Amino acid sequence: MCDLVARTGRHQQRYRDGYRLVAGCIPFRYKYCAEECDDDPMKSVEVLMINSQSGPGLLFPKGGWENDETVKEAAVREAVEEAGVRGDLKKSLGYYCFKSKSHQDEFSPEGWCKAAMYALLVKEELSSWPEQSTRDRQWLPVPEAVEQCRHKWMEDALDVFSKWLTDKVSDIEEEDPISTPSSPLSPG
């Protein structure tokens, strides 16, 4: 049985300039892959997606940012509630505006939302979580995740994530003192 309970209702929901404020993340993990990765960071990483409750396609966990929490706390909470994972936020992936057909209210009558998205390195996958009865989770390589995204704005966040990941790997390679020619550790 799950000890955690998902927050419900809108009494704590944040709004700004007609937008419902949302926080979410792209949960990711590094997978072991020997030769088949070919130094391609996209082959050594998987992202976690969840099913949509309102139609086909997959989503990243996200939900309302509430008054009693920071945006980062909201992103981490949504990862636990919707996807059943805990981890460390590693990178802000930016803000994304979208229109929600199911979340129109007096403060956002047209359903406009603004989502702050983060990369979340998964440290723990829970066996029980608040929305497990309505959410299935699926680990996917990044190229497959792009094909499965239900919303264009989530594809855009995934693109920013992919660029960050590629740059991160490039930075590591550039800092490697063994392979840097000017390094005092280099042979010759």
TrEMBL record:
Residues 18-162 form the Nudix hydrolase domain. SUPFAM superfamilies: Nudix. Pfam families: NUDIX (PF00293). Gene3D superfamilies: Nucleoside Triphosphate Pyrophosphohydrolase. It comes from the Eukaryota. Its cofactor is Mg(2+). The keyword Magnesium applies. Keywords: Hydrolase, Magnesium, Metal-binding. Belongs to the Nudix hydrolase family. This is Nudix hydrolase domain-containing protein.
